Amino acid sequence: MTTHTAKTSKITLPLLRDYVDALMPSLGSSRDTSMDEQANTTGDQTDDTTELLWVAHDKTELSALQTQLKTLPDNSNVPVQSWHISTLSELTKQHLPKRYELACFWLPSLSHETLQQYIPALMRYRDLYAAHLLVALDSSIDLKPYGFTPFDILSEPSLGANQVESITSSTVSATLWQFNLYDYKKLPNWLNADYWANPENWGKHRW
Asked: Beta 130-137 vs 100-107: how paired, if at all?
């Protein structure tokens, strides 16, 4: 992994929390229904688990994350029963990981060296356990080699030269990366029932 020097947008935990809250209602409609039907046919359980996963580096950041989540409004789109919080180390020890609609990794203090031991976990959630993945890291870390793209739609306003703000869990900023399992590549023209050897079996069986 190499560092990147291009100008990137900065995001704080409160802004990311608010974005996730606004994003959650739209995620279900963006799923590939054929994949859901296939999962139901084959017995795979994809919808009986928590929808949202928040991941922090350690217990200190986990506490800050919990504090931020508690400030969500009563009419939030992310009810308490629909999300789970974990540290990176707890996540890597799970033998049977759950699947989530969205996994959000808040890791602004993670160093490049420490990140390397957690890359396999990120890859598992990228490919298997999360339909949508957001990863907030220090701006010096580049996730492009792992298939992630910078998410520069959100950005905190820059502080003026005369503004002094203490560094807290609410003001620490990070660069946001994303991966969406259902639109990371364009669906090929041939991937449909018209080109299936037995069209009546489309969506019912796996190789």
From this structure: parallel
Tokens of 9: 């947008």
- Compute the distance between CA of residue 114 and CA of residue 119 in angstroms, rounded to an integer: 9
pLDDT band at 50 (very low <50, low <70, confident <90, very high): low
Sort 70 into a burial class: Cβ within 10 Å, 0-12 / 13-18 / 19+.
exposed
**CA-wise closest residue to 28 among 77, 98, 80:** 77
Longest Cα–Cα distance of the chain, Å, equals 69
Of 96, 64, 101, nearest in space to 82 by CA: 101
Residue type present at position 55: V
> Which whole-number Å values give the CA distances from 130 to 27, 31, 173, in the listed order?
11, 11, 24
Residue range 136-169, pLDDT digits in tens: 999 899 999 998 988 876 555 554 444 444 444 5
